[in-house]
Every structure is written in structure tokens, then in C-alpha cells.
Amino acid sequence: MPDNNELNYSHRIYHNDPIKFKNLINKQVKVVAKDSSVHHGILYTVDPVSESIILIEPVNNGTYKANIIVGHSVESMDISTCDESIDTKLPDFFIKKNKILSDDELLIKKELIKNLLIENRFPVEENNNGILKIHGMLSIHPPYDFDDCFCTNPIIMTRIHKILTQVSS
Fold it and tell me: Which residues belong to any copy of the AD domain (predicted)?
């Protein structure tokens, strides 16, 4: 059983309550900093190790302002009184914006990638769905971008990504 000295010197991460942090996500919170400044906003995320916080403030017309508050300066964080005019449902800030390719453009891109893979001595097979496969280890799905590669071997994945950069540039 640990004595009191061990508890006093252990890192604060072992005393954090991750469930509390998780329950505060997407809620309106009030953060009081050690310099007595007060920050209001919707809690976007908390780093569980450093306890740094990202607060999102709706500005107007669907625009948002992000405030990053470093963990060592946070004195307290509590759910603030709910302002009904503020929508706490935040948009996905990291939406992938895909360029929609026509069937012809998709076919050209697929053939280009297929030829590059063959030139680099990868045995490429194509199934009925247009998915390119290499020895059943790697598959590249339409529209044949980085995020459309699936592989369990990181070395092969890195080599394929290098080849795909030739297509995208």
C-alpha cells in the first residue's frame, strides 16, 4: 500500500477524473484561470495529460472563435448556466472536402495509379467494385486518395503513400 509521500508526489494525471472531462465536452462551461480571468464557451476538448482546454465561442453567422487555455493556468472549470440562444451542437471542424470526380476522371485516376503501382513492381489486381488490391494485404478504394488506402503493414502503406503523392501533384 502506498504511503502518503507517494500520493503527494505522484503526477496529477493519476488523480484526474476522465469521466468528468468527457461529460463536459459540448457543454457550456465557465473556466476560471489562476490570473482570475474568466473564459466562457463550449468545451471542445480536454487534453487528459496536460489538462489544456479548447473552448469554442460562437461569434456570428456560423463562425466560431477557438480559445486554447493551457492546463497549468486553469483554476476551475464548471458547467455555466445554460443560455438557450447558444447552440451547443458544434459543427465538425475537420470535414474532409472531397472533390467529386466524374466517372471518366475516376477511371483515368485509377488507371494512372494502377500503372504507377505496376511500374514500382507491385502486383495489382482489380475487383468488380473498382478496388485495387495488392496480394490481399492492401486495398485502395475509389476515389483513390490517401484516406482510401487500407493496409495492415505500415511499411507498405508508406511506400504506397509516396506513390500516391506522384498522382496528386
Answer: 75-169
Alpha carbon distance 109, 95 (integer Å)? 23
- Last residue of some domain: 15, 44, 79? 79
- Domain span at residue 59 reads 4-79
Backbone φ, ψ for residue 4 (5° rounding) = -65, -35
Kindly state whether residues 14 and 72 are assigned to the same domain. yes
- Do both 69 and 16 map to the same domain? yes
Is there a single domain that holds both residue 9 and residue 49?
yes
Per the CB < 8 A criterion, the answer to whether 40 and 30 are in contact is yes
Of 150, 109, 111, whose CA–CA distance to 133 is shortest?
150
Position of cell 476522371?
105
pTM: 0.53
How do residues 18-47 score in pLDDT, each as one tens digit?
788 888 888 899 999 999 999 999 999 998
Radius of gyration, alpha carbons of the chain = 24
- 30 neighbors 77 (Cβ within 8 angstroms): yes
